[in-house]
Amino acid sequence: MTPMNIGVIGIGAFGSRVALRLLWSGYHTLQIYDIADVAVRMFTNDYGGMAAGSPKMMAQSCNVIIAALPSAAELREVCFGWEGLAQGFTTGGILIDLGNTDPVETTNIGNELAAAGIDLVAAPAFGTPGEAKEGKLTLVVGGPEAATGRCRPVLETIAAKILRADAAPAAQAASAIADYLRAARLLAASEAIRLGRRFGFAPATVLEISQQLGGDLDAVLQREVVTRRFETGVQLGLVRRNLDLAARLAGSTDTCSPLIDATFTAWNAAERKLGYGADYSSIIRWLETLPSLKPGPESEPETAGRSAPSA
Questions:
Q1: Using H for helix, E for strand and C for coil, what is the string for 152-207?
Q2: Is residue 150 located within the same domain as residue 227?
Q3: Fewest C-beta atoms under 10 Å: which of 19, 22, 26, 131?
Q4: Domain of 246?
Q5: Are residues 168 and 221 located together in one domain of the fold?
């Protein structure tokens, strides 16, 4: 097999560790580029690798280029700006984007690269610079199947876990979706802790009560929502009633709880649509009845996701 020539663009705190990992893993001809020339000189003097004069020059001698850049604007610049890599790659070149960037712009960049015969593999990286150096990142990888297969040895060098998405925009959307879920859960727990304090509960006690009485939410999501069984046995109306009580508790103690208010409003609307006796895990069915922000073809949510994902 012909050796794969690799380049890294972006030698910041994260990209430099990715480059180190590749050098230490046998990619001794690794090329390095950064808009800050001094960063490239310091890296190559201290650790090795070869400095590239521009993205175009790197692309002329590399099969795969890894971009570790802070935003889609910088990615577009190295692709299509001065001496951009799109001018240097031959057909079949692969650009791996490790950044957590805008999925919409990623789509645009990917389409423009594809028109030039270049494959974009979006692989937003999750982890610390230290984990990058140790090859312990988690990557969500999306892009053409053939391209992801060809560069998989490179991805496996820098990552301990690779999660496959279908297309590049799907991979880039992963970070936003994951952080939304994390933010909502953290806000909900924080509101519960604050409200619990008004009634003399220690924060740890509030969390323990939630775990004991609320059940394992992750298990419910996997067992009931993903499979669309909706058979927990807990009535949606009962949850809505207790949300009403929580909102009243907040009001009686003058505790501002914006997420409680928004959640009660949503569950109240869901009960009106689905009925008191619907299983509470089926609230996603209510969400699927909401109108799109932009009018478009009707989807078929009930049949779109019935089968459970493969392990």
A1: HHHHHHHEEEEEECCCHHHHHHHHHHHHHHHHHHHHHHHHHHHHHHHCCCCHHHHH
A2: no
A3: 26
A4: 215-304
A5: no
In a domain, 81, yes or no: yes
Give the chain's largest Cα–Cα span. 72
- Asked whether residue 151 falls in the same domain as residue 38, the answer is yes
User: Does residue 154 share a domain with residue 12?
Assistant: yes
Q: Are residues 166 and 220 in the same domain?
A: no
The last residue of a domain, from among 146, 172, 198: 172
Two tokens at 282? 């089926």
At 212 the pLDDT is 86
Query: What are the tens digits of pLDDT across the range 182-204?
Result: 999 999 999 999 999 999 999 99
Beta carbons within 8 Å of 261's beta carbon, 6+ residues apart: 247
- State the chain's mean pLDDT as an integer: 90
pLDDT in tens, 14-45: 999 999 999 999 999 999 999 999 999 999 99
Q: Is 63 helix (H, G, I), strand (E, B) or coil?
A: coil
